[in-house]
Design a protein that fits this description.
Keywords: DNA damage, DNA repair, DNA replication, Ligase, Magnesium, Manganese, Metal-binding, NAD, Zinc. It is an enzyme of class 6 (ligase). This is DNA ligase. The chain is α+β, with helices and mostly antiparallel strands. It has six domains: 3-61, Orthogonal Bundle (Helix Hairpins), CATH 1.10.287; 83-309, D-amino Acid Aminotransferase, Chain A, domain 1, CATH 3.30.470.30; 312-422, Beta Barrel (OB fold (Dihydrolipoamide Acetyltransferase, E2P)), CATH 2.40.50.140; 428-500, Orthogonal Bundle (DNA polymerase, domain 1), CATH 1.10.150.20; 503-574, Orthogonal Bundle (DNA polymerase, domain 1), CATH 1.10.150.20; 596-664, BRCT domain (Rossmann fold, 3-Layer(aba) Sandwich). It contains 24 helices and 20 strands. Strands 2-11-10-3-9 form a five-stranded mixed sheet. A hairpin with a 2-residue loop joins strand 4 and strand 5. Bound molecules: adenosine monophosphate (AMP) and zinc ion. Zinc ion is lined by residues 326, 403, 405-406, 408, 421, 423, 427.
Amino acid sequence: MDIPKIIQDLRDELNQHNHNYYVLDKPTISDFEFDQKLKQLQELENQHPELFDENSPTQRVGGTITKNFQTLVHDYRMYSLDNSYSTEDLTDWETRIQKVLGNVPLQYTCELKYDGASISITYENGKLKRAVTRGDGFQGDDVTNNIKTIKSIPLKLKGSYPERFDIRGEIILPFEGFEKMNQELIEIGETPYSNPRNTASGSLKLQDSSEVAKRPLECLLYFIVGNNLNIKTQFEGLEAARNWGFKVPKEARLANSLEEVFEYINYWDEHRHKLPYETDGVVIKVNSFQHQDELGYTAKSPRWAMAYKFKAEQVSTKLNSISYQVGRTGSITPVANLEPVQLAGTIVKRASLHNADQIEKLDIRIGDTVFVEKGGEIIPKIIAVDLSKRNPDAQRTQYISHCPECHSELVRTEGEANHYCPNFYGCPPQIIGRIQHFISRKAMDIEGLGGETVALLFNNGLVNDFADLYELTVEQILPLERMAQKSAENLINGVQKSKEVPFERVLYAIGIRYVGETVAKKLAKHYKTIDALQNASLMDLILVDEIGEKIAQSVIEFFENEENVHIIERLKQFGVQLELIEKHNPNATDKLVGKTFVVSGVFEKFSRDDLKKAIEDNGGKVGSSISAKTDFVVAGDNMGPAKLEKANQLKVPIITEDDFLVMIS
Ligand code: AMP
Ligand code: ZN
């Protein structure tokens, strides 16, 4: 078997599938098939560490931690762009250019201006070498590891390409992915991100590249620099980049005159809201590289390019009232109720006012005429008050002091922007919100029960917390509005069936603040039972992989509350899974309980992952490095010399895979 060839073929195939999916939006295999192939490649690479390639598609999942990003100097400076705001500005620009060029016929490339974070990526012999942020234009941060996790960026190029070049583009977060990320944050009671641009640019500097890998980032390319490129125009450059495998938006157009540039601008000013990502303008570039060379640069920007900024769409309307929403965690959000008005293709009736500080800053009063804008945020924003239209009798807005739902006095923790209703157990939207979270799809996924029914059950006094769900009977719920025998039975069955939901999802469902799906999995795996989690100290929790102080503190607070403990106790009695049930494995034994193993080298009978799994299946633990706590080192071929020395030094027995097989047989 020609292993190097099999591995290379798999890599090429997976690269092509990534390209089909992330660049062309035309996948040709299912996600499942893709994952299978990736797994197969991963296993082969594990068995053949000598064939490691930093640009293999398996490296996309990330996992490197960067504490300090290294500063790197750009081979070619990254300039800014001059801005223009009107057709006159652009006409003036053309006049200036033509003075230099001598009134030659000119072509322009028109592109959309993507709103994200700019990046410069270097390719050498078709392979991604490094990726650097813009920084001050002369030097930026080395974010190569993070960039490699973005799947629309090719790690290896197709076709024929220059030996070495830099390609520039914008890292963006399309609206859909952004909203999904925010939805997940809201579900765990975290504050959502404010706009896609800042979130995209913040992502580049995350220390853990596997976190970056989880974000639905994209990279849109717009410029190539280098020597001997063999490209003559900007437009050709875009096409070349597309052929090499980059994502280059198809909206770019060649214009033969400023008139055509204006047409492009007008078209996109109107249609930009239909794009899947944010644009704040158009970039117009002199097409010919020869002309570009003649024009050169000012101290800050190329003379051959110009950004045209769209006006943010703004309308004015009347503020009818302010209402206050109470979230599942008790957090209060003020919402402006507006006289309905058309804006950026939708009818706007409401706008978020964020918090008390924002209201104070705007000094917004009921009856005011306000300017509303739709920028990066999906939810429109109130920019300012039209003071010229203010009624002289308008009263200053008093922020509420009591919960609009349960009338408890609100609290505001120092350093936090939002007010809270502290009546965790008596405030209806908090109670209903928690139960709705409990039954949601990623949590207990209770079939036959939806969010509105939860409110109905609560309002009829049938449930007050999620444990109450398990005591409901068909007779109790039949009298409810629109509840037929069949749907009542379905609901009760759904609730009963949820007792099979595994511990990790139950842990997510009970809604400990900051404990999202992933954290719940980590905690469940580590502690295995709710009792162990409940008894964990703050220190203990912080020591768990990836659990920070904020989460740890929140877990402690949750269990300090007697009401919570009581609810958990009742869930336990009803038979909800509050312990991890290890999946039944016919090969599992407890022969290795209490023993810690470190695995090193290459094996014949196992892949490294299989060996690790075999250790765990038999009750043992797998350590990552040799220490005084290591009981055995399982060594294959090519064990690292440092490990060997360490094992000898600590007198840790070194065993072969055959020894290991005997141990578990
Ligand atoms: P500004 O940050 O307003 O000076 O605008 C310059 C930035 O626009 C560049 O640094 C790029 O990051 C970004 N940009 C977005 N789309 C394009 C594009 N199509 N061509 C060139 N630059 C772009
Ligand atoms: Zn309340």
